[in-house]
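Try it yourself: sequence plus magnesium ion, in.
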Amino acid sequence: MGLEETRALICDVDGVLTDGSILLGEDGTEIKRFHSHDGAGLALFVECGFQVALLTGRKSGAARQRAKELGVQHVREGARDKVPAYEELLAAMGVTDAEVCYMGDDLPDVPVMRRAGWSAAPADAREEARAAASYVTHARGGRGAVREVVERILKAQGKWTGVLRRFQA
Ligand SMILES: [Mg+2]
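Structure, out:
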């Protein structure tokens, strides 16, 4: 299955949208570091008419805050088993497996990567996630891996030139 069919992007958060670091304060406050290139890519992707969802096993509020900033439509936190959460997201977005690109970096992502029509793993993902992925990005997690996938989808669908035209790039 190819990227021509993609209508939605579902991303794991830790290790995909971040470098995997979890900064934890004494009071339990969790701090995550996101990259502006990934954020700008997701915002553009949503503007181009795609649906985006963040799917994470942790529950920190940081993912929800980041999604809100970027116009990302769906967030599922605290999903220990990612497959049922993935299925709920498909229903919420009205898309099929074939229309989904999933990005993940570790073992809990592998079953979902096998379901999605197309999948990607960051360069520094765990070996099993890289093996399951349709594509391994050149960029590392939290360092433009998501931006790389967004551009790849937009290019496959002939939409990237239109984006560049907007910025006269
Ligand atoms: Mg992860």
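One thing you can check immediately is this: The helical segments are 36-47, 62-70, 82-93, 110-115, 127-132, 145-156, 160-167.
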